Amino acid sequence: MKIILSLGKIHAIWCRVKTGSTGVSPVKDTTLACRASAQTGGTPVLPGCCEVQLFPRDGIKSFRSHHRGLVLLALLLAGAAYCIAEDSAVALQNGDSYKGASDTYFYDSAGNFNYGKAREISFGKVVRLEDGSERNQVALLRFDLSPLAGQKAGGPATLSLVQVNLLNTSGKNACRFSVFEVSPENADWVEGTESGEEAMEGSPTWSFKAVPATMWAGAGGLAKEGADYDPIPVAEADFKETDGTHHVVQIQIPAALIQKWIDQPELNGGLLFVWQSGDPYLCQFRSSEWSISEQRPLLEVKVKP
């Protein structure tokens, strides 16, 4: 982390902040603009937080010890040194140090099957070639934000998903999908332990939030707006045409929603993915069980200092 401390004739630069093993990873440095101030506000420079080196400004090549003493005296007279920090970001992605992402999907024609351990997140609408019937499929994705407890969201979070495939039966290329907040009544879902097999007890399916008896709050497949999900979309996005490239689709999650999930984790039901418009498609992203950890769903959260 780089810091600039401007007072009189000096700059103090290069402050390295020690990070702990919290299961989250800084994804970029934070630049701090620090100044001596008698005003309140800002974050004090904590002892032991960083190692500071002093460098001259305005062509002055060296300092004598009494110059440093004058600087310290000026700081004491002015008040305390405060840092005004830019927002930093942390990355949440299932791997060795973080295992808080859960995802699953299910479809109406296999109402008792679970896909919690599948390598992909799959959702959409497909027309069966053999009989012309439709198959509706939805997906769920949630990140545990407990590593950010007590933090303040500094802006929208970015969800990055790597495409696996785009399946359609129409020969056309058009697919738009919506992402909704799962209702608090459904927030306690778990992803389940199967990968396309009949659900074990406690796993979710199209028909049940938890087999064998706990229903979704509204309807099968979380289909009832208001009861199963907030009807106002969190975001809408396009699934890109498959051309042999594994595209990354990025979705912005509002800061207010991230903050709610941080402050009230019991309300964090995650996101519901629903095919919205276009020709019938089955959209597939790499899930949190994908073999290459760097290609699993990634949530980058901005936090204030």
Describe the 3D structure:
With 305 residues, this protein is mostly beta strands. The chain has 2 domains: 2-86, no CATH class; 91-303. The protein contains 2 helices and 22 strands. The strands form 4 sheets. Strands 3, 8, 9, 11, 12, 13, 14, 18, 19, 20, 21 and 22 form a 12-stranded antiparallel beta sheet that branches. Strands 5-7-4-1-2-6 form a 6-stranded mixed beta sheet. A hairpin with a 6-residue loop joins strand 11 and strand 12 (134-143). The longest helix has 14 residues, at 65-78. The relative contact order is 0.21.
Number of helices: 2
Q: Strand fraction band?
A: 35-45%
Shape: globular
Structural class by secondary-structure content: mainly beta
Count of DSSP E strands? 22
Overall pLDDT confidence? 75
Distance between the termini: 12 Å
Helix content: under 10%
Radius of gyration: 25 Å
Low-pLDDT stretches: 1-84
Into how many domains do the coordinates divide? 2
What does the main sheet amount to? Answer: 12 strands, antiparallel
The topology string of helices and strands comes to EEEEEEHEEEEEEEEEEEEEHEEE
